Amino acid sequence: MEAAMKYICVLVFVVIMAIGGFNGVDGHDTYYGPCGKHNIEKEAEKLAPCTEAAKYWNAPVSERCCTIMEKKLKNPSCLCAILFSQTAYNAGVKPEVTVTIPKRCNIPVRPIGHKCGAFPFV
């Protein structure tokens, strides 16, 4: 009887570990932030064509920047996280200027009023 109980305990343990493995539990603290599995700093690097337009109110916005911005606007929370990233800060990006880029690009579908910190998209 005691051997059967040990066998059942081992079997239950193996089943639980297998279920955890199938659900993606790998024993690490994996936090998916506003950009999902994407690294925010690497996502910020993708906005390099927008750097000048994100620093200066009157800087022209390139077509490449507009294309990238339109893609990033599909997840405004991710875009906001990018605007406050260390990469953006080091590049001199100003969030209060960056939130105006979608309007400057004439992007028709944009999250008007969605705030990045204290700065709403216009």
Summarize the structure.
The protein has 122 residues and is mostly helical. It has helices at residues 2-22, 40-45, 51-55, 63-72, 76-83, 86-91, 95-98, 101-104, and strands at 115-116, 119-120.
Notable characteristics:
single chain, 122 residues, two-stranded antiparallel sheet, 3% strand, elongated
State the assembly state of the protein chains. single chain
Uncertain regions: pLDDT < 50 for 5+ in a row?
none
Strand content: under 5%
Q: Topology as H/E string? A: HHHHHHHHEE
- Structural class designation: mainly alpha
Instruction: Please report the distance between the alpha carbons of the first and last residues.
Output: 72 Å
- C-alpha Rg, in Å? 23 Å
**Mean pLDDT over all positions:** 83
Q: How many strand segments?
A: 2
- Helical coverage, percent range: 40-55%
The coarse overall form would be elongated
Largest sheet: 2 strands, antiparallel
Would you give an account of this structure?
- There is one protein chain.
- With 122 residues, this protein is mainly alpha-helical.
- It contains eight helices and two strands, in the order H-H-H-H-H-H-H-H-E-E.
- A two-stranded antiparallel ribbon has the order 1-2.
- The longest helix has 21 residues, at 2-22.
- It starts with a helix and ends with a strand.
- 20% of the residues are buried.
